[in-house]
Design goal:
Elements lengths: L1 E7 L12 H19 L22 E4 L11 H16 L4 E3 L15 H7 L4 E2 L3 E3 L2 E3 L12 E2 L5 E6 L6 H13 L8 E7 L1 E2 L9 E2 L1 H4 L8 E5 L5 E3 L3 E3 L17 E8 L7 E7 L5 E7 L6 H26 L7 E7 L11 H12 L3 E6 L16 H14 L8 H16 L4 H25 L1
Parallel strand pairs: 1-2, 2-3, 3-4, 8-9, 9-12, 10-11, 12-14, 17-18, 18-19
Antiparallel strand pairs: 1-15, 5-6, 7-8, 13-14, 15-16
């Protein structure tokens, strides 16, 4: 028996990323590109990025959609239309789309059905989930009349099981599912797929919803291919658990994960090589560019803008060479600029609007994100383990005064003044004595500044 299927997840239709309509459209374009791969029919779209080295993957026998077709539970008409348009193409091509419900698209508690169930009722999806019967999961076959069931058989000899998103209860649900699978008749079944919206612990440390690998083990004897969604990072574990990754980037970090977007699986149960070949697809998508600039050597806001312009123009020239060499048609990118290091002047003087305008002028991007990862001069202290306490104290104060433009030229005198005041305070001097000392130190600093001005 030979079959071919496409596995995708985390489409996130309707995501108005950065509040920009073009990013909303990008997620729809990514979904249509997945449909292109599944059907083998490429539909060019205005402004679409073209990767000349890619070939169309389809047609496939069926599509597995492992949750999060939508970005949120409440849909607008345009987002629903995007889903219907893509799923209708599959239906017209005779390709079933077998899906489970993800965490982003679950129905509200007060609602009878969610949008995924609505699409199933329209005959656009086979939405799988086990029913709870007297505290146990009931694995019933898909009923075309009720549009409900825990498993279906899109081709003779192929069985696909589905389980919706369970969140923190996923481990427990897997145990119940494994127990139900163990006693379920499987006559004539040559290849089994299990679809759910869940992650594997350790694959994305910052992402919740991961289940320990050992907890998946109960399915091992019953299932040939585990099809996951939820984690947007692609991974394959022991040639058994598969996650395709998100077709579009929901964050800057996701743009670095390639190839990702979908998996095409060729199954031949009669093959002596194990019967399964995997092709990791990589969809065309909008480019994300991330740059980091260290501000330590900019002594003024004007100097920072000048140095930053030189840095960005150099990066733009490098990018132009890269684009010319890659033979890619590229849409306006999303550009993220992160400012790092120590800011040597008052943070309030940092003109973010001017920096954003600078990035826009040089790159002509779709979206600009300027992020401040700056450390203030108050926090930027470097200690040496060989220093005595008094030496460390003097070094800290000198460093702080030296990095602030208001005190940099007379940092040694300001350091001496601060230490003198501290010694008086520790000695139990009265408030009057402290004020007198402070007034004297300020007069000395004024005289020093006046002297410096005359020399200039």
């Amino acid at each position: 028996m030979k079959i071919r299927f496409l596995h995708c997840a985390d489409i996130h239709l309707g995501y108005l990323q950065y509040g920009h309509k073009e990013r909303f459209n990008d997620f729809a374009a990514a979904f249509q590109a997945v449909i292109d791969k599944a059907t083998g029919v490429y539909q060019p779209r205005r402004g679409q990025i073209v990767r000349f080295d890619e070939e169309v993957a389809g047609p496939v026998d069926f599509v597995v959609l492992a949750g999060d077709l939508f970005h949120k539970r409440s849909l607008d008409a345009l987002t629903l239309n995007q889903a219907i348009r893509g799923l209708s193409r599959l239906r017209e091509a005779g390709i079933p789309c077998i899906a489970v419900e993800g965490n982003h698209e679950r129905a509200y508690y007060a609602e009878t059905i969610g949008w995924m169930k609505f699409l199933a009722l329209q005959g656009l999806l086979i939405l799988l989930d086990a029913e709870n019967s007297e505290g146990r999961l009931a694995l019933t076959p898909w009923d075309p009349q009720r549009r409900q069931g825990a498993y279906c058989e899109p081709k003779p000899g192929i069985r696909v099981y589905g389980m919706r998103y369970y969140g923190a209860s996923t481990g427990t649900a897997l145990e119940s599912y494994a127990a139900a699978l163990a006693v379920l008749p499987k006559e004539g079944v040559e290849y089994s797929i299990f679809v759910t919206h869940a992650g594997v612990e350790g694959e994305m440390e910052e992402k919740a919803g991961g289940v320990a690998f050992r907890q998946w083990g109960g399915l091992r004897q019953q299932i040939d291919y585990v099809a996951l969604g939820h984690f947007h990072k692609p991974f394959v574990l022991e040639h058994w658990i598969h996650n395709p990754g998100s077709p579009e980037a929901c964050s800057m970090a996701e743009s670095l994960w390639t190839p990702r977007g979908y998996l095409v699986v060729n199954v031949d149960t009669e093959s002596p090589q194990g019967g399964q070949q995997l092709w990791r697809g990589n969809l065309p998508r909008r480019t994300f560019r991330q740059y980091r600039y260290k501000t330590d050597h900019a002594r003024s806001p004007e100097a920072l803008l000048q140095q930053l312009e030189e840095f960005l123009r150099r990066k733009a020239r490098d990018l132009a060479v890269e684009v010319a060499a890659s033979q890619l048609e590229i849409l306006p990118a999303v550009v993220e600029l992160s400012l790092t290091g120590v800011l040597p002047f008052d943070r309030r003087a940092l003109d973010f609007a001017a920096i954003e305008n600078l990035v826009h002028t040089i790159f002509q991007p779709l979206v600009v994100q300027v992020k401040s990862l700056l450390q203030s001069v108050e926090d930027a202290v470097v200690a040496d383990e060989t220093m005595t306490r008094s030496e460390l104290e003097r070094s800290v104060l000198s460093s702080l005064f030296g990095r602030d433009l208001r005190f940099a030229e007379t940092s040694a005198q300001w350091t001496a003044a601060a230490l003198a005041l501290k010694r008086l305070a520790l000695s139990g001097a009265s408030t009057e004595m402290l004020l007198e000392e402070l007034a004297g130190q300020l007069r000395l600093l004024d005289d020093l500044s006046a002297g410096s001005g005359e020399q200039m």
